[in-house]
């Protein structure tokens, strides 16, 4: 490992978040904005160029300021699934806090949250073993997108 390589320890940042896993929030219209306002910083791991773009746009347009920590694995630099079409950048598109898999949710046995490179690897393994797991690609790691955690 040379000076151009670094290894961010995501778990260290996640441990310092004030996102309480014991607390179950009330889901209402202002849930997402309230959740973003109460967290001490944002930790994200975008897996597509469009989501990275929208993440930075969201950060600039929020009515308050919080630190943004972005992890981007080197594995996804040339991965074929880590691409975005032009339509993903245009008006009407936005930051996707959670990207569901293409598995039919009626046959789901387990809900698995993955992040970036884990999703690419996990999708390959799920297709090889034909396990009916429903994988969601979590872009927002802190705060946890609890409002999107349904089938």
Automatic annotation (TrEMBL):
Domain Transketolase-like pyrimidine-binding, residue spans: 2-78
A single BP term in Gene Ontology: tricarboxylic acid cycle
Top-level division of the source organism's lineage: Eukaryota
MF-aspect GO terms: oxoglutarate dehydrogenase (succinyl-transferring) activity; thiamine pyrophosphate binding
Keywords assigned by UniProt, alphabetized: Oxidoreductase, Thiamine pyrophosphate
Coiled-coil spans in chain: none
InterPro entries: 2oxoglutarate_DH_E1 (IPR011603), THDP-binding (IPR029061), Transketolase-like_Pyr-bd (IPR005475)
Cited SUPFAM superfamilies: Thiamin diphosphate-binding fold (THDP-binding)
One Pfam family hit: Transket_pyr
Oxidoreductase listed as a keyword: yes
GO annotations of cellular component type: mitochondrion; oxoglutarate dehydrogenase complex
Cofactor(s) required, per the database record: thiamine diphosphate
Gene3D superfamilies, per database record: 3.40.50.12470
Family (UniProt): Belongs to the alpha-ketoglutarate dehydrogenase family.
Protein name (Swiss-Prot/TrEMBL): Transketolase-like pyrimidine-binding domain-containing protein
């Amino acid at each position: 490992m040379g000076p151009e390589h670094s290894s961010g320890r995501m778990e260290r940042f996640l441990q310092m978040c004030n996102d309480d896993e014991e607390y179950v929030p009330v889901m209402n219209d202002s849930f997402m904005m309230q959740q973003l306002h109460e967290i001490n910083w944002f930790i994200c791991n975008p897996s597509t160029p469009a989501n990275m773009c929208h993440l930075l746009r969201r950060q600039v347009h929020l009515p308050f300021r919080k630190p943004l920590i972005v992890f981007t694995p080197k594995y996804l630099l040339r991965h074929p699934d880590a691409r975005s079409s032009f339509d993903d950048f245009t008006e009407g598109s936005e930051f996707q806090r959670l990207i569901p898999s293409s598995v039919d949710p009626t046959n789901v046995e387990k809900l698995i949250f993955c992040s970036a490179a884990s999703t690419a690897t996990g999708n390959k393994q799920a297709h090889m073993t034909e396990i009916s797991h429903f994988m969601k690609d979590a872009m927002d790691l802190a705060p946890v997108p609890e409002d999107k955690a349904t089938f």
